[in-house]
Amino acid sequence: SYGAKVHDVKKDSIMVELTATPDQINAFEDLAKPFGIIETARTGVAALQRTGA
């Protein structure tokens, strides 16, 4: 189980979000490759400033 969030499902595609370690993401990509990955994006570490605090 990778714990990916499914954001969109269409007849010929699916969009998922996965928050995990690089090794876990690599393993997920290897598992999904036979289905035809069209695009992937990795953001790395992200920090956001809180407003109004």
Number of domains: 1
Compressed to H and E, one letter per element, the order equals EEH
Query: What's the total helix number?
Result: 1
> How much strand content do the residues show?
15-25%
Poorly predicted regions are none
Using only C-alpha atoms, the radius of gyration works out to 14 Å
The secondary structure category is alpha+beta
Based on DSSP secondary structure assignment, what is the total number of beta strands? Answer: 2
Reported for the largest beta sheet, the result is: 2 strands, antiparallel
Q: Could you characterize what this model shows?
A:
This protein has 53 residues and is an alpha+beta fold. It has one domain. The chain is 21% helix and 21% strand. The protein is built from one helix and two strands. It has one helix spanning 22-32; strands at residues 5-10, 13-17. It has a two-stranded antiparallel ribbon with strand order 1-2. The radius of gyration is 14 Å and the shape is extended. The mean pLDDT is 88. This is Acetolactate synthase small subunit C-terminal domain-containing protein.
